[in-house]
Every structure is written in structure tokens, then in C-alpha cells.
Design a protein that fits this description.
- A hairpin with a 2-residue loop joins strand 8 and strand 9.
- The chain contains eight helices and 23 strands.
- Helix 1 runs antiparallel to helix 6 and helix 2 packs across helix 8.
- It is globular and about 65 Å long.
- It has a single domain, classed as Anthranilate synthase (4-Layer Sandwich), CATH 3.60.120.
- By secondary structure, it is an alpha+beta fold.
- The longest helix has 19 residues.
- Strands 1, 2, 3, 5, 8, 9, 10, 11, 12, 13, 19, 22 and 23 form a 13-stranded mixed β-sheet that branches.
Length: about 425
């Protein structure tokens, strides 16, 4: 890893009674959160942060993490996913101005399958901090002031038309176009309230908060545990119906849509292609299923395999990103179209977000339904929220704009 050599870390995990509300054990101003269906873990403090720049594939992230983790002294009799040495990561979509960070906190409090734990992390030349997990009550409720970003609704439809022209010219088969909404919240706002609202309203997603990036992603990029690798591919979206009959009709229309099926297959093939070099066995479901979320239907396909090498979760993140689900097909050409047509830097939106442990195991999602928060200024804490849609031949600019409005709903509702 870059930067000066650090003293060796000492890591101690101990089982505790399960904590009912994990979010009370992370910082209000800068929470570290990874949670799904009530299970997960949160971090407090910062023991070490790695900042990276440039495309993920050029960074050898897996090698850097292995070298860092190998120096740690770890005492972990609990042995659950998320115990021991853990780094929380939020990685840039395309380099640019955004940095990729992996943060090792001072303390982690977690819960999984009815068991709880606390992990303490120190340098080997320092004493242990206070044994008791810190708990910080929630601050007052707040709401955001929001407005159009650089990629306004009008400019977004222009970008979609440009993407359709690129498809017609044979540059790409699919390209994902995104847009932004900007705003601010009052200085001193408790950002855990946003993570709490997202985790409560969308329990089947990954609720995350890492280095100011907060959201609830329905899409698992990759999970690695004990030599098994899994992924869930989402591509193809329809808004939920207003009543049960309309909802069934929306799901059926999505499942039988040739456009959405084509878009989905592009995404599945990109994941299989990236994982194949690292696996001895790899299988995807033959046909996608419709995944129901509170605001949308998605076409989804689960992928599972067995690792054939020592690839860590970060190695696979670098191999997979960006998938066709967030960039397009072919990937390099789609990225060129995105850089040409989008009027803003995606930052970490649609980049990998998740965690990795000392064994290289971890869970990573694609940072969707999210907002990035900056440093407080005269107007409060600035934020940028994001949403996107996959463009293929036959896409309609107005319909794609409406799709982004549906995808904005989770983060916009929570901010409001």
C-alpha cells in the first residue's frame, strides 16, 4: 500500500450480546455502515485509510490489501463474516477527481444470525482504547434542499439521444447514461438518519455509508466467502404498479420485454466473462427472475462459482468493474461514450462499495440509489444524488428519464 510504513495493527474480536440498533455505534457526522435485513456491522473512528486514484484495474488493490493485512496480529475466536480485520471501501467509478478509499476503523460493532461482536483495532505500540462500545444518540431530524444538477432533465434526454446515435453508428450495443441532483442539508446533521431510513424502507438492499457516500443498493457486485464467489446481476427495470393488477402487469411486461431481456443478457455476459479466469466452476441461472423492491421491479440473475486461485474480493472487484449493468457493452467503448456525453463526474456513483477482511473475503455492491456528501460550508453540507438507465436500440429518451425518476425515489424520499 502507498504511503509510509505503519506499525503493525493488533486486532481483537470478542462476542457480545447482539446490539439492537447498530447505527448508534457509529459517528453521526461520518458513519461507516454495512447492513442488510438488520444484520451487518458499523465502524467508529479511523485507524487507517488508504486513498487511491486512477482506474481500479491499474491499482492491484488485492495485492496491496494482502500486504497490509499480512502484517496484522489478529485474535478472532468469533469467526463470522465481518469479524477480525475489516476495511470499508468506497471506490471511484472512473478515476477522475474522485478518490477510492478503504477505511479501517478503530472499532467495529456487528450482528449476524443472532450473534453480536465487537472488534477493537490498535497499533502494536499503543494501549487498548476503552472496552465499552460507544453509543451516540440520534440527533434531530433534518431534510434536504434539492435542485437539478449539471445533467438536468433536458440535458439528460439530449445525452440519451446521443447514446442512441452511438448505438446506431455501431460504437456500442448498450450504454448507461446517468444524471445528478444536487443540494445541501443543515450543518451538523446526523447522517445516520439517512442510513436508518434507507435500511428501514429497503431492507433487502445493502444499506451503506462509507466516506460520505450513503445509499441502499439492490445489486451485489460480488461476495467471496471460503472459496465461493457469488454475484447478482440486475439490469432491466419497471416501476411498480399502483394496484395489485397493475403491479402484476408491470412485472409481466418487464419479464417479456425483448429490450429489457437484451439489456439484461449484456450485463450477465460481462459478469461471467470477468469471473471465468478466476473460477473452476461458474454457473448462472438460465433465465432471469423478477426481483420486487418497494418502488421497482428488476430483472435479476444469480451467479455462483468456486475460486480456482487466491483471488480476493478486491481482485474480483477490479476484474468486474465496470459491469455492463453500469457502463455498457463493449465496456471500453461504452466508457468513452459516457465520458463524452455526461456533463458531470460520477465520482463513486456506480462504483464498488463494500468491505474486505484479512482473508480476502468480503461483500461488495454497486453504489446505486445513493448520495455523496461533502464538507460543510456556508450553505450547510453539500450533496449530490445520482440515478441512471441503460440505453439500447429502441430506447425512448422520455421513458429513460422517467426510469431515472423512479430510481431516484429511494434516496430522494429519504433525504426529504
Amino acid at each position: 500500500m502507498t504511503g509510509p510504513a505503519l506499525p503493525r495493527l493488533v486486532v481483537e474480536t470478542r462476542e457480545i450480546d447482539p446490539v439492537e440498533d447498530l447505527l448508534l455505534h457509529t459517528a453521526a457526522a461520518r458513519p461507516l455502515v454495512w447492513q442488510r435485513r438488520g444484520d451487518g456491522f458499523v465502524g467508529a473512528g479511523t485507524r487507517h485509510t488508504v486513498e487511491l486514484s486512477g482506474p481500479l484495474g491499474d491499482l492491484s488493490l488485492g495485492e496491496r490489501w494482502r500486504a497490509f493485512a499480512a502484517t496484522a496480529e489478529i485474535d478472532d475466536p468469533v469467526g463470522l463474516p465481518g469479524t477480525g480485520l475489516v476495511g470499508f471501501g468506497a471506490l471511484a467509478f472512473d478515476g477522475g477527481a474522485a478518490t477510492s478509499t478503504v477505511t479501517v476503523p478503530d472499532r467495529i460493532v456487528g450482528r449476524r444470525d443472532g450473534r453480536g461482536w465487537v472488534t477493537r483495532i490498535r497499533r502494536d505500540d499503543e494501549p487498548w482504547p476503552d472496552d465499552a462500545p460507544a453509543s451516540e444518540p440520534y440527533g434531530p431530524h433534518w431534510s434536504a434542499t434539492l435542485g437539478p444538477g449539471r445533467q438536468s432533465p433536458e440535458r439528460y434526454q439530449q445525452a440519451v439521444r446521443g447514446a442512441l446515435a452511438a448505438i446506431a453508428a455501431g460504437e456500442v450495443s448498450k450504454v448507461v447514461m446517468a444524471r445528478d441532483v444536487v443540494g445541501h442539508i443543515p450543518a451538523g446533521s446526523d447522517l445516520r438518519r439517512l442510513a436508518r431510513a434507507l435500511a428501514s424502507d429497503y431492507p433487502d438492499t445493502w444499506a451503506f455509508a462509507v466516506d460520505g457516500l450513503i445509499g441502499a443498493s439492490p445489486e451485489t457486485l460480488v461476495t467471496v466467502h471460503g472459496g465461493t464467489v457469488t454475484a447478482r446481476v440486475l439490469a432491466g427495470t419497471a416501476a411498480r404498479g399502483a394496484d395489485p393488477d397493475a403491479d402484476v402487469a408491470a412485472s409481466t411486461a418487464l419479464a417479456t420485454s425483448a429490450k429489457d431481456q437484451d439489456e439484461h443478457q449484456f450485463a450477465v455476459r460481462s459478469v461471467l466473462s470477468a469471473l471465468t479466469p478466476h473460477t473452476r466452476v461458474l454457473a448462472a441461472e438460465e433465465a432471469p427472475f423478477t426481483l420486487k423492491l418497494p418502488n421497482v421491479w428488476h430483472l435479476a440473475t444469480d451467479v455462483e462459482g468456486e475460486l480456482s486461485d487466491a483471488a480476493s474480493a478486491l481482485d474480483l472487484v477490479a476484474a468486474l468493474h465496470p459491469t455492463a449493468a453500469v457502463a455498457g457493452t463493449p465496456t471500453s467503448a461504452a466508457m468513452a461514450v459516457i465520458r463524452r456525453l455526461e456533463d458531470f463526474d460520477r465520482g463513486r456513483y456506480a462504483g464498488p462499495v463494500g468491505w474486505i477482511d484479512a482473508h480476502g473475503d468480503g461483500e461488495w455492491a454497486i453504489a446505486l440509489r445513493c448520495a455523496q456528501f461533502g464538507a460543510a460550508g456556508a450553505d450547510g453540507i453539500p450533496l449530490t444524488a445520482y440515478a441512471g438507465a441503460g440505453i439500447v436500440a429502441g430506447s425512448d429518451p422520455e421513458a429513460e428519464l422517467l426510469e431515472t425518476r423512479v430510481k431516484f425515489r429511494p434516496i430522494i424520499d429519504a433525504l426529504a
